[in-house]
Each structure stands twice: as C-alpha cells, then as structure tokens.
Amino acid sequence: MSLGFTIVKRLAHMVFVMFGISVLVFLIFFATPGADPAARIAGRNASPQTVALIRKEFGLDKPLPVQYLRMMDRLVIRRDLTSYVNLGEKVVPTIFRAAPVTLSLVFGAAVIWIVFSILVGVLAAAFKDRTLDRLLMILSLIGISIPVFWLGEVVNLVSQGLLHNTWLFSWVPPLGYVPLHRDPALWFKSLVLPWFTLALAFIGIYGRVLRANIVEAMQEDYIRLARAKGLPEAQVLIRHALRCSMIAIFTLFGLDFGALVGGGALLTEVVFGLPGVGYLTYQALTNLDLPMIMATVTYASFFVVSANAMVDILYSVFDPRVRND
Amino acid sequence: MNMLTGATGRVLLEARSVSKRFNVGSRIVPALRKTVHAVDGVSLQVVRGETLGIVGESGCGKSTLGRCLVRLHEVSEGEIIFEGRDITRLSRRALRPIRRKIQMVFQDPAASLNPRHRVRDVVAEPLIIHEFGTHSEIDARVVELLRVVGLSADHLERFPHEFSGGQRQRIGIARAIALEPDLVIADEPVSALDVSVQAQVVNLFQDLQERLGLTYIFIAHDLSVIRQVANRVAVMYLGSVVETGLTEAVFDHPAHPYTQALISAVPVPDPDRAHRGRRILLKGDVPNPAAPPSGCRFHPRCSYAQATCRDVRPALTRIGPHREVACHFPLV
Amino acid sequence: MTEATATDPAVPLLAVDNLRVSFRTARGTVRAVDGVSFRLGHREILGIVGESGSGKSVSLMAMMGLINDPNAVIEGSIKFQGRELIGLGAREMRRLRGGRIAMIFQDPMTALTPVYTVGRQIVEQLRLHTDLSTGAARNRAVELLEAVGIPGPKDVIDRYPHQLSGGMRQRVVIAMALSCNPALMLADEPTTALDVTVQAAILDLVRKLRKDFGSSVILVTHNMGVVAEIADKVAVMYAGRIVEHADTPTMFRTPWHPYTWGLLDSIPPISGARPRRLSSIQGAPPSLQRLPPGCSFAPRCQYRSRRCAVKPPMIGEPDHRVACVLEPGERREIVRKPAQQNDEIPS
C-alpha cells in the first residue's frame, strides 16, 4: 500500500481522536455534576439575568448532545463564541490572532533545536568517550537543567538591561511581537533570543537521545556492512547511523512540537511578552473565562493531534518499514 | 528406542484439525484485514514413549503448532486431546494440573531463563508453583535434577550467564523435567548450540527419554538432528503437514516432493558423497503465508506439479502403515 | 595503483602469516587469534571451520581491516596480492575494502540499512569505487541482481530490505559484494541464518560466482557439511589457532586432529544407519581468558597425554598440516577402532 494511503488513514485517525477530545473537554466543563455551567461561563459576580441569558444562549436546558453540537457549531462553524468575562470578546478570532505568535516562536525554536541537537549528537557519538563527547554531554545536561523562565529572565536582564548599550545586544528590540508581514527583519530580531531560550533544553535532551541512538546504531550489522563497502567513517556515521537514528527523534519531536504549539510555550511567551496562545490560556485560566478555556483547549488538542499526525506521516517517509504493505 | 508406534501404542496427545490464524493489517477496515493461517488444519498423534519430530523451514508453522499444543497460543479451530480429554477450551485453572504434565524446552536457553535467578531458583520454580513438597524436599529434588542433566550441586548458586550455552540448555531441561511430565515439547532446543555441544544435548534428550519414559515432540529445522532423535516425523510446509511417517522410511524414501528437496538440500560432510550438482533446487521462495498459492501449497515450486496441483488441494492421505502424504502424485 | 604483482601467479592472492589479534580487557589480554597462517590461491575457496570463540570471524575482520576497537592489537602479516595490509593507511584500506576485497555477513535480515532501497545501497558502493554515473551504476546494479539469481531485478532494485525474504536479502548482499569485481570475497557464516533449501541455493550461487567472477573465497562456517560441499581447502580452527589444514577430500577422508574427528562425529548422519548415540566432544569450547597452557583442546581430548602440556607445533606434510602431537602410527591405530562413546551421564 502506498504512502498516500498511509496518509489518508492517519488523517482519518486524527479526526477521530479530535472528536474524542472535544467530547471529553465538553463533558468536563458542561456535565460536571454539582456545577452550573451557565454560572461559570458568566464569570464571578454575574447578575442572574446574565446567567439566564447564557442558559438560553447555550441551550443548557436541552439534552447534552444538543448542547455539544451547539457548542461545536459556535466554536468551529460560526466561530462567534463570546467571552463573558472580557465582555463581548469573540474567542475564536482572538485565538487566531495569537496563533501566529506561538507558531513563529515554536517553529523557529524547533529549527534551532533540531539543527543543534543533530550537531551535538553526531559530534558526541563520533568522539564517543573522548573529551569532546564528555564536554557536550555535560553542557547538554546543564541545558536541560536550566528552567526556561529563569533563563528567559536572565537573557532579558542581559540583553535589555545590563549589556543593551554594548555592540553585543544593541540590535535587540524591546520585548513583544512584531508580525512577520509587517517587518520581517524586526520579526526575526525580536524572536532570536526567545527561540534560543526555548530551544536550549530541547537541544540538551535531543542531543543526548540522539547520541545514545547513534552509538547503538553503530553496533548494528548494517554499519559493519557499510564499513565493509569501503565507506569513509563520516559517511557511515551520517548516511547510515544518523539516518536510522533520526527515526526515534521524530517521535519525540512530534510530541514536543505539538505540546509547545498547543500552549506549552507559555512560560517563554510570558517572559518575553509574546501574546501567543500560551499567554492567552494563562489569562483565561486566571480569569476563569470558560468559553476561552474551551476554545484554547480545543485549539491545543487540534495542534497536538495534528502535529502527531504530521510526524507519523513524516515517519513513514523516513522509515519505509512502517508503511503498510 | 525400540518402541514402534502407530495404532499399537497409547495415544498421549492428539491434535485434530488444529488451525491457528493471526490477523494482520487493519483492525477497523475489514477489506484491509489479512488472515495468516500460521497453522492450517493439522492433525497429529503422539504416542506414549515416542519422539515425534516436526520439521520444516522457517515460517512453516512448526513453532506456532508447538505453542498451540501447550496452549501458549489459543487455537482458532480444532481440538487438542490430551490423555483422551479435550483440553482445547479448558479454563486456566482447569488446565493447571495438565500443564505440569506437558512441559516446554525453548531454543534460546539464555532468553528463557531469568538472568536474575540463580540456578536453584530456576529449577525449583515449577516445583514451588505446583506445590511439590516442603522446602527441603524441593532442595533435594533440585540437586537430583541437576545431577540427572549432567550438572552438579556446585552449580546451584550460580546465575545463568555464568554457564555456557550447552549448560544453560541443560538447566532448561532440568526445569522442564522437574515435575516428571509425560510430554516434553522441545522447540529448536539445540539450534543455538555449538556443533560439538549439540551432540551432547541430543544425547541427553535420548538418555532422559529412556530413563524417565518421556514422550517428546521435537521441533527443529535441522533434518539431521530430527533424523537422529525422532521415531516418527511430520514434515510441515506453509502451515500444513505434508508428510508423516517413520523416520527411516521418510528419510530413505520421501513421498512428498518437498520432503525430497529438503533432504537433498542438507549439506553432507563427505566430499565424495556431497551433493555437488545433483541436488534438487527449489524454485523461488516460500510464499507469503497471508496469500498462499491455490491448490497444493507447494505446486509453484514443485518440479513434478501438474494441472491438478494448481486447482485441487491434496489431503493428507494414508499410503502405508504409519505413512501419510498430502500429494496428488506421491513419489512412493 | 601499481599492481604488477596482482596477476603474477607465483604470488598467492592472500598470504597470512602468524596473524595474532588480541584485545586488552580489564581482566587481562585476550588472544582471539593466535598465530594463524595460510595461503589462498587464485579462484580458490577456503573453508574455515570452527565453533564460537575459535577466532574465525575475528580473523576475517582483521583481513578486512574492520577491527577498530582501540584495545585491539593486531600483529603478524596479511599480504594481499603481495601488499601488506597490516598497518596500511585507512584511506588505502578503504579503497580495497568493498573494491578488491568484499565481505558478506551472517545475518542477511539485519545486514542491510533498513531505510534505503537495495538499489541505492548497491549504487552507493559502485559510485564509491568506480567512475560510473548514477544511471550507469543503477544499470550495473540491475545486472548484478540478475547475476545472483534475483527474479525481476528491475523491480527488486527499488524495494526496501524488509520487503525481501532472508534468501533474497543474502543475494542482495552478495550482489553488493560482487559489484566491484573483488579478487577476494570473505564470507562470514553466509548461510547459517538461512533455511536449508535456501542455503543450498546460496552455496550453488557462490560456486557459480567463483566461475563467473573469478573471485577467491574464504568461507567461515561451523558447518562441516557446508565446507564439504563447497571448499577446495579446509582449515579447522580451535581457540584462536588453526589446528588442521588440508585440501577438502584429504580432510574428510583422513582427518588427523582429534578435534576434527569430534566435529565430524558429532554430526548426525542424514542417511545410512542411525547411531544409537552420537559421539560428542565432552565439555564446551574454552573461554579465551582461561586457555590451558599447551594444547588448548587437551582438556576435551580423549587422547590427551603428558605430551600435550606443550603447545603443539604445526607438523605433517605440505598439503596436510596438523597441530597435534599424535604420531602417524597412533592416529592410524585410533582411527581403526570405532569411535569411542563418551558417556557423561551418570546412570
């Protein structure tokens, strides 16, 4: 069976999972016994009229399946779900405004952490048990151990404060996000530091995992055959060992990427003042803004699941063995 | 080894049209589901005291069959009769007393022994599970068992990795015979061993049979080993038995073209009699068991195949005393 | 490359002299190969027989320059077409490897890189050692697959390893080995992981390829039957040493070393009378860390005597050599008697 079929199958699977997640999220918010969803949507100190209005608007006197469909209709099809906490704010467009920020942040960081972790993993494996290997492994351990919010604050302190007026950091724009289409150069400059901050821990983790995978792959029979062919060691390492080790990295990448786009980059966004989805979720949670939470959770699940689906599809491009045949 | 078999002996275990299917592919979309008949309608009898050899190449279903017989796999169809009793659908609990009468020895002694258990624990485990006796009775039994398989009490406190492959297989055998089973099913028990050690373990199997009156089902791909240990052989191809008979008869005058090709392929350690050139080379590979050929499963590779073989699947038919073959045009 | 000696028939294709490979370990030095010497002529097939730990595979890896364990010490001489391989630069060795000297391995299921098509893997090697363009290399790969008896090579070339059976994969590995017309092919247990019918086909193939490609072959195996089928000469290895070396008919008609006797007797016959019991060699192959002084086989040998306390030198005739102290008369005496049964089961 072809690659195309694998992809279709994976997409169908993804739709199925997303349906399940949306039902689950809906049930948590609307069918929890002993809690009135209308009162929760209305927010704190809402008037009884508002609550009654909400009850009617969301059809809360109707059976649960109808409520679910109505909710999905407003969330996905009509996209006019409004927040009652932030009076009248339409939640879906808000998320659509926040998403590019998060995507910019996470995409850039992902490119950085993949490139650098390959570098770290390959070099460490090539110099296994020698000084360079040990050094890289210690550095990646340090990278993993540094909390991202602390690192972000330090980066800000240095680049915005202490050394901002030196040649080293004078190019750093003030905190915040500049859309790509408005000024690409500024977009890039404003994101470089957040990218590296977010990527650091992942470089550490991925570098270590990749090293371990390559070292293991180097024991395989096919590596012996590659050497027996007369391939130079560097080619054996990169074309054969690294290529096969990347498969494991992809699984990890799918999970991490999806989680970050779905709001996991919250801390980085907050520290660098980037109004992304994570930031939005954070605000919605502090305000107990139920429609907003509902929307961000659905958005997050969409990204986690679709990132996983993407990775599975990539997986079958990279590893012919998982294709159905 | 003087015991001739067949209708005269008492049947210990019988498989009646046993099939084992594995589903592969999609679990949701039926059109994408494929069924692999790993074992396809196998009927066999094992008579008390004999050694039945099951031989065939990888993927022929011999190991799956062995596992079905001890119910490590649940069979999809057919019955397994042990001592006249249908054990195919017995509950776990009801099966327990039967489990102690049927034991298995596996190919890789290193993988089938828990590396953290000392030899004492490995051998004692079945005795403890089946409540053989008091602590000291079990200890004494373990020492006795080790002696029987050619090890000594000095080995009790050691770990499996401290032993050579042959010794580990001896430990596996000691464990298998601990409860004085009636039937031992050995799945490729010597194929992971060095040649010189293989012979020792084959001898051990034969000695134990004589001393303890064991019945064996000996599963192997090595035809020479099967010929040495078995009274009777069943040759399997793509999930089915294609030929059964007394060992000498089958090896000297194979009735099925597959058996003939298999035997002719064995390299002979004698350059004067080596097959250089006059061996029957089979065409192609073993077909995919998920899409077996029509008619006789062997026909695409058979040099004797005729039109009938493509369409009609031959049944296992009696062609002589103790002799059955599934072929439209048997060679004897 | 100037290879004036390459075609000189007086120079053997391969001359191995006193090859020793040892590994430094935490528990002292382990000598895996201990003074192996032999010559291999053009178009000759040498079978090396031995059990685990006999040093047969390590010897092959040394010839291939593939021992890259920093704790390994390789001594002695390996002359390929008159050229010393031990101490040869990495670049030079790489040029030979996969080019003039090719190797095939035991387990075809794991020998090919799983993520590339077989065609790509063959082309990779061709491009490395020849000037062929990618397109020409691909055509050559199709020819090679056809030469090793793969049906539908044009189709198979774009398959991934996991889509092929074990026998087919081993043919692909062989095709790869042959791709640059090697003068020497090293085969490490090439049929052990295969079914007998497939093994027969692969052995036939090796025989045919010697004819078509003119390569010499060293085939390492534990199977005496395989050697009898295919080899011109046989070397029996035990604990890192060659203990007996002869041409194939001689080795099987009049074996001299007790270990060879044991090996031959442990194989259950496939025809003729069935022995009631197999005669077996007692004990197990020794650990290389705890080799006995003198003859390594002595502890397992039925015919050991005080003479065995000294390392036995290679003696005998030019084309049949043995490392055993038994006198020709003693050997004849022992062989005349039926093989003794050594019963180690107390009854």
Automatic annotation (TrEMBL), chain A:
The keyword NAD does not apply. Residues 99-315 form the ABC transmembrane type-1 domain. It is found in: Cell membrane. It is a multi-pass membrane protein. Its main location: membrane. Keywords: Cell membrane, Membrane, Transmembrane, Transmembrane helix, Transport. The chain crosses the membrane at residues 12-31, 105-127, 134-152, 186-206, 247-272, 292-318. It comes from the Bacteria. InterPro entries: BPD_transp_1_N (IPR045621), MetI-like (IPR000515), MetI-like_sf (IPR035906). Signal peptide: none annotated. Belongs to the binding-protein-dependent transport system permease family. This is ABC transporter permease. It comes from Acidiphilium iwatense.
TrEMBL record, chain C:
Keywords: ATP-binding, Cell membrane, Membrane, Nucleotide-binding, Transport. Its main location: membrane. GO terms for molecular function: ATP binding. It is a peripheral membrane protein. It is found in: Cell inner membrane. Residues 14-264 form the ABC transporter domain. PROSITE patterns: ABC_TRANSPORTER_1, ABC_TRANSPORTER_2. InterPro entries: AAA+_ATPase, ABC_Ni/Peptide_Import, ABC_transporter-like_ATP-bd, ABC_transporter-like_CS, Oligopep_ABC_C, P-loop_NTPase. Signal peptide: none annotated. Belongs to the ABC transporter superfamily. PANTHER family: DIPEPTIDE TRANSPORT ATP-BINDING PROTEIN DPPD (PTHR43297:SF2), OLIGOPEPTIDE TRANSPORT ATP-BINDING PROTEIN APPD (PTHR43297). This is ABC transporter ATP-binding protein. It comes from Acidiphilium iwatense.
